[in-house]
Amino acid sequence: MEPIKVHNGKTVALMNNNIDTDQIIPKVFLKRIEKTGFGAFVFDEWRFLKNGDPNPEFPLNDADRQEATILVTGDNFGCGSSREHAAWALKDYRFRVIIAGSYSDIFYMNSLKNGLLLIELPQEQRDALAQLPADETIQIDLPNQVVRTSTAEYPFAIDATWKHKLENGIDDITETMAYKDEIDAYEAKWDNIYA
């Protein structure tokens, strides 16, 4: 998992509340078994018109927002089903950070485990971020737990365990492999018993 310490990026705002996982990645695209390739289908039903053309009214299609790596959004983001594909799709699209008012618990955990930094900020601060010009780069400073713009700083809270994992790129497998010697010793003990 790629570590996140200080991320500098541009924003795109999608300020709807209650965006569910089926809107993030429609179920028709869940046939893949890899974690990659889902980014092309993120928000598919909103990003594209029925004829397949990009929807000119959808924020992610704005020509000046194509470099955005930070999504600013509404409350209860990632509600609905527990599909981990939603986190895969957002990350594969290019997002590194999501800033919302709140998250579904399962989506929140799936995202953290896949290296997405999820930040909760109040409505007023998110509204200010949503109004930033497309060419403004903001800074997400995870060690100091602050979102910085050219004119403001917004502190955020994060569980210390998840902060450590994100800063150091530690996923579940990496964490397990820290105990490799103990695992090998345990397996060797049972190999000897049944030899």
From TrEMBL:
Alphabetized InterPro entries for the sequence: 3-IsopropMal_deHydase_ssu, Aconitase/3IPM_dehydase_swvl, AconitaseA/IPMdHydase_ssu_swvl, IPMI_Swivel, LeuD
Domain Aconitase A/isopropylmalate dehydratase small subunit swivel: 2-124
EC number: 4.2.1.33
Any one GO cellular component localisation term in the record: 3-isopropylmalate dehydratase complex
Enzyme class: lyase
CDD domains assigned: IPMI_Swivel (cd01577)
Gene Ontology terms describing biological process: L-leucine biosynthetic process
Subunit structure: Heterodimer of LeuC and LeuD.
Name the UniProt record assigns to this protein: 3-isopropylmalate dehydratase small subunit
GO MF entries: 3-isopropylmalate dehydratase activity
Primary gene name: leuD
Pfam families listed in its UniProt record: Aconitase_C
Record function comment: Catalyzes the isomerization between 2-isopropylmalate and 3-isopropylmalate, via the formation of 2-isopropylmaleate.
Xref: SUPFAM superfamilies: LeuD/IlvD-like
Catalytic activity: (2R,3S)-3-isopropylmalate = (2S)-2-isopropylmalate
Pathway annotation from the record: Amino-acid biosynthesis; L-leucine biosynthesis; L-leucine from 3-methyl-2-oxobutanoate: step 2/4
Family under the similarity heading: Belongs to the LeuD family. LeuD type 1 subfamily.
Coiled-coil stretches noted in the UniProt entry, renumbered to this chain: none
Keyword field: Amino-acid biosynthesis, Branched-chain amino acid biosynthesis, Leucine biosynthesis, Lyase
